Amino acid sequence: MQTETRLNEKNGAQGSTVGMRQQEGPGGLWDSMKKAAVIIGSGILFLAAFGNSLTWHLQRFWGASGDFWQNLWTKVYLAFEGHDTALFFLGTTLFPTLAFWGSNALLLLVDTTGKPSFITRYRIQEDKNNPVDPVKLRHAVKTVAFNHVFISGPMVVAVYYLMTWRGNPCGPELPTFHWGLMELAVFSIVEEILFYYSHRLFHHPSLYKHFHKQHHEWTAPIGLVSIYAHPLEHVLSNTLPVVIGPVLLGSHVTTTTMWYCMALISTTISHCGYHLPFLPSPEFHDFHHLRFNQCFGVFGVLDRLHGTDSKFRQTKQYERHTLLTGLTPLTQTIPDTPKKGQ
Ligand SMILES: [Zn+2]
Ligand SMILES: [Zn+2]
């Protein structure tokens, strides 16, 4: 197992560079990036053109509840009047911390006990972490707590100063429903671009062994492993892609907080190791941990563009990479092909 892991890691770092050369041809990375700019640009144009009619229907549901949220915010705003800094820190640290540790506490109960079976039956790598190795887990918890408190914490402080320079993140008025949706779309695009390229850079052989190998110690990840990383990787690849969007748009503290929570919950799901019903599929990033040199992005748009999902697309994991809308685990409906001799 150890040998297999080391072999994979070696291939992971080196294979990706070889892959880059083969897949990108004479135009290379620059050519692909130009294509990416065209695709993303068209996406933004599409959103601008059709966004209003798409969101109009959603806004009808929002309706009167919009006033409810504005009234609630006014109460909070008045309670903190003159203490914007405190309001910003409380919002952007308390809620994301609760979201991250709350969801991970639940997952850890399952990982450490191997129960209940109605959750463990959805395990992606069926023979792994059953239950999780306690020594490995303790080490991961310490690193994750360190990154959370000593890296994400100070970065939120830095972000606050950038945001106040950009505008007033704690204004009395909530952003409109349309603007909030537009912001979430832009944050996601910014995250996909920055995470994909920084992550792929960390797979370069000269950087991989120093910075990114740690995150890949877990070939079968669990939720908490999402921020189990070298401090430099945690700054450049995990935190910056998420915090830059709200700084660019000069966002309100409420949409910023909501986005931080969404980003932490989504990365927890991507790493959790269970393909649960009615939740986004974690197959894509789970495959990255299994094979190292495939699936570098968050949504997979840039992987498709650069061809870094070519092997993934030939696998059973790819066939299972959908929203599970029934209760039967996808490992049962789409079983692995039996190995020769079995
Ligand atoms: Zn990962
Ligand atoms: Zn990686």
Automatic annotation (TrEMBL):
One of its GO terms (biological process) is lipid biosynthetic process. One of its GO terms (molecular function) is iron ion binding. Keywords: Membrane, Transmembrane, Transmembrane helix. It is found in: Membrane. The chain crosses the membrane at residues 36-58, 86-110, 144-165, 177-197. Residues 1-25 are annotated as: Disordered. It comes from the Eukaryota. One of its GO terms (cellular component) is membrane. Pfam families: FA_hydroxylase. Residues 1-20 have a biased composition (Polar residues). Its main location: membrane. Residues 185-308 form the Fatty acid hydroxylase domain. This is (Atlantic silverside) hypothetical protein. It comes from Menidia menidia (Atlantic silverside). The lineage of its organism: Eukaryota, Metazoa, Chordata, Craniata, Vertebrata.
